[in-house]
Design brief:
alpha/beta, Rossmann fold, 2 domains, five-stranded parallel beta sheet
């Protein structure tokens, strides 16, 4: 793990990084930028390992030298980390105080996002940040000589959370000490000051493909092939999203949306009320998941109506057949309206609306979208 070969896709980018390191031309300040849930953090650490390896060849760490052994277990003193955190207590804190927890989360999930990290730190929905004191510690640590290696690497995860404090780092980002590499790993370029961006060489990390997400879920996270396929379909290249779909047994709840759609078509009022009462017992995240799956299901129905071909429909076989039988009952316009209705339901769910009243009303609205042809389950 944490070799370039372990990273899905990105062949041209990996080749560029290998060429730069082999030619001793890797930039001393760089930014790995990519959407949530892709390989950017994984790639950044693999790059740090290559920079530290005494014998790397063609992008492969030797795994024999002392540096490789230390970096594999995250114990090398010359690879430093900085990241946003939720401060505990009134005294000055730094990311080093939370490093063991952060590393453990990273090892278990190299695709983690800020929500994964902050929810592990606190259950109070507090937002993490990179404080002024943390910035002073970054400058102090980068100014020190390496402990073991000839070079030092500082990996700064989510610099978006620096805010105005990023000005404290401008000088050291522009002129890092000799044999020092600073790698920033970010998701949202708009939230990073231009004065920071201008000092970094940018490496854009593309989203993962559906097949790559599926492969990682099966090979690394040991999910079943069928569950991994469905999660990959819905995640749209976001591994964090794919992993979240396994929470609360969400993937097993896909059939509940289809059952609701059947009830809405027939408008069996008593059965709809039973379904809604059961739906109301779920927590907010499960409700949102079922509604998000509904949007995914509706979008795949549009593909069926546009004759995309079954190979391009991101639904498991049994559900694909159900979607194909439902398609003649809904016009293009009705399916597009269904997506908007479900999106509105997610918005209302976020704001803790009265679930029972809203879903019963919405059931009637969806019923009116059907054109009256009989649906055979």
């Amino acid at each position: 793990m944490f070799q370039l070969d372990d990273i899905q896709g990105l062949d041209s980018l990996k080749k560029e990084i290998v060429t730069l390191i082999s030619g001793k031309q890797f930039p001393h300040t760089s930014l790995f930028l990519g959407a949530e849930g892709n390989e950017k953090l994984h790639l950044a650490y693999a790059t740090a390992r290559m920079l530290m390896c005494d014998n790397n060849e063609d992008g492969v760490c030797c795994e024999r030298c002392n540096a490789c052994k230390r970096t594999l277990h995250f114990t090398h003193p010359d690879i430093l980390f900085s990241f946003p955190f939720i401060k505990k207590g009134d005294s000055d804190s730094q990311s080093e105080d939370y490093l063991s927890e952060w590393k453990a989360l990273f090892v278990s999930n190299p695709y983690m996002n800020v929500f994964d990290w902050s929810s592990q730190q606190s259950e109070d929905n507090k937002m993490p940040n990179i404080t002024a004191y943390e910035c002073s510690q970054i400058v102090r640590k980068l100014g020190m000589r390496p402990y073991e290696a000839k070079q030092k690497v500082m990996l700064i995860w989510m610099p978006e959370y620096l805010g105005k404090e990023s000005n404290r780092l401008l000088k050291i980002l522009e002129e890092p000490p000799e044999d020092t590499y600073i790698i920033l790993v970010a998701e949202d370029q708009e939230k990073i000051l231009n004065t920071i961006l201008s000092r970094c060489q940018l490496f854009k990390v593309d989203p993962m493909s559906t097949e790559e997400v599926h492969r990682v879920l099966v090979d690394y996270f040991k999910k079943t092939t069928s569950e991994a396929r469905m999660a990959a379909f819905m995640a749209d290249g976001n591994m964090s999203e794919a992993l979240s779909l396994f929470n609360e047994g969400n993937l097993a709840k896909n059939d509940e949306f289809v059952e609701w759609l059947r009830l809405c078509y027939r408008y069996q009022h008593g059965e709809i009320i039973k379904w809604v009462e059961h739906f109301a017992t779920y927590n907010k995240e499960v409700k949102k998941y079922i509604l998000k799956f509904g949007i995914h299901f509706a979008n795949e129905m549009l593909k069926i109506k546009y004759n995309y071909g079954s190979d391009n429909i991101r639904l498991p076989e049994g559900m694909l057949e159900t979607a194909a039988r439902l398609c003649p009952l809904l016009s293009f316009e009705s399916i597009e309206k269904l997506v908007k209705i479900l999106d509105e339901e997610i918005y209302l769910t976020e704001r803790n609306c009265n679930t029972k009243m809203q879903m019963i009303y919405t059931s009637g609205h969806i019923h009116r979208l059907f054109n009256g042809k009989r649906f055979v389950a």
